[in-house]
Amino acid sequence: MNDNDIRPQNPGSSAPLPDAIVEKRRGFSIVWLLPLVAALIGAWLAYKTLSEQGPTITLIFREGTGLEAGKTRIKYKALDVGVVKTVRFGPDLSRVIVSAQMDKEVEPHLKENSRFWVVRPRLGFGGVSGLETVVSGTYIEVEFADGNPAREFVGLEQPPAVKADTPGRRYLLLTDKLGSIQRGSPIYFRDIQVGEVLTTELAEDRQNVLVHGFVNAPYDRLVRDQSRFWKTSGFEVSLGAQGIDVRMESLLSFVLGGIAFDTPTHDEGGEPSQSGARFRLYDSFASIAESSYTRRDPYMMHFEGSVRGLSVGAPVEVRGIGIGKVTEVKLEVDLKTGNVRAPVIVELELERLLSQDLVRQLDETYGPLRADGRRPSMERMVERGLRAQLKTGSLLTGQLFVDLDFYPDSSPLQLVYGGQHPEIPTVPGALEAFQKIALEVLDDLRKLPLDRIADELLGTMQGANRLINAPELRAAIRSLDALLKDVRSLTQTADRQVAALAADAGKTLGAARSTLEGVDPEAPLMVDLANLLKELATAARSVRILTDHLERHPESLLYGKGGTGRGARR
């Protein structure tokens, strides 16, 4: 075809126009390359995003305080490893379900034993934690552990006391009651804190409490199979012979309680106990020694009178040394006779009284009798006067205890069989004996003729009153007073006269001495005169003594030297 072929025909001619022929172009058009390349790039980007994106996990918490979608971070060792995507309620509204996007690099570590908890400011007896969240905000911390892969976890309500990577060992302690022990209570070894309590829970038997404890390394190597754990108190008061002893360990153990352990010296060279080993947690260090006595024989006692103040756990002592304790105090009423008795059941530890070798020997000798319920050793002691008596252990509290001692003068009795347990005879307590004596004295007083005695005593008092108030007695007293005044005046006069007489005698003796100086001393006159002078001196001394006596006892003029006057009575 050429240009002439497609040239328009004459309108006047009748020839038809030719049809256009369309031919398809063969091959790939470059225009389709652009969307294809865009699709490939999008697919590659989507694959890369999905391949680099970490797994999505589900966390279940009891409450969602501080959790915000898109803001709350998940951290491990202070580095971000994920972020919270959604926060919603569970179906029953009792739980908060958190969906979180984790980083790809931590996916291999998401195992079933991993732990998650919310870090927020916490104030407790064990200290303050989570203060950094005041600035950075609340976040979720994770602690990776082993196990099977998992994507759903139950979050902890409290941060773990010890991280999984902390070196040390965990131990299980079994006790009858928890006491003041709680989460965070310290564990001591010779007053050095070496660990703490992780958790506490009730045992499967519902009779004991399990305490999970952790001892840090290297102190965990001090724990042996023979180690002993006991509860400690931060504040202890004891009363002894030296007075009151007050001991306070630390404020932390005072608030949270504490646990101490020790290992016997002969066991310190052994192998350390494995993690998860079980130990008995004793109430105190003293109870450890008590637990070594495994032989306990029950006995029954009946006490006269009231047992008020005697409680379960009260000690049974022999001359101040405990050998057992009271296990039961009950009441028995005999409807036929109307008698009321209070039987007391005790447990005696024979090993406290006798050595283990002797106990073993007695078991070999009296084994068949013990199997039949007999107690040959106790039978002999009761025959020799062993009796039980209630005594007061504290005047402040009025608590009683059972005292066992020998009373040789008591009536002979025997150990009584036939009841629930063998019965040990008893004697009245000191208070009961005093009450009995007081009642006997009151009975004797009641028998006295008190009315007649009172009448006679009243008559005697009336007679004495009349005698004292009699006019004659008053007149005699006045006369005696006047007589004493006269005696005092006579004494003073005699004193003056005796003094003058003594002065005259002195002058006379002087004159006589001058006269006799010229006389021969050996003359009979001089000898007689010398004797006279001695007698005069003796007489003067006697007069002076008489004067002094009369000054002190003027009544001697009336009653004589040994009289019964007022001065003599004095």
Notes on the structure:
With 570 residues, the chain is an alpha+beta fold. It folds into four domains: 51-154, no CATH class; 168-291, no CATH class; 297-430, no CATH class; 476-569. It has twelve helices and 26 strands. It has helices at residues 33-52, 133-136, 251-256, 285-291, 356-371, 376-383, 430-447, 450-468, 471-516, 524-552, 556-559, 566-569, and strands at residues 56-61, 73-76, 79-89, 96-102, 115-119, 122-124, 127-129, 139-143, 152-154, 168-175, 186-189, 192-202, 209-216, 228-232, 235-240, 243-248, 258-262, 278-282, 297-302, 315-318, 321-329, 332-333, 340-341, 343-348, 386-392, 400-406. The strands form six sheets. It has a seven-stranded mixed beta sheet with strand order 5-8-2-3-4-1-9, with no helix packed on it. Strands 10-13-12-11-17-14-18 form a seven-stranded mixed β-barrel. The protein is elongated, with a radius of gyration of 57 Å. The termini are far apart.
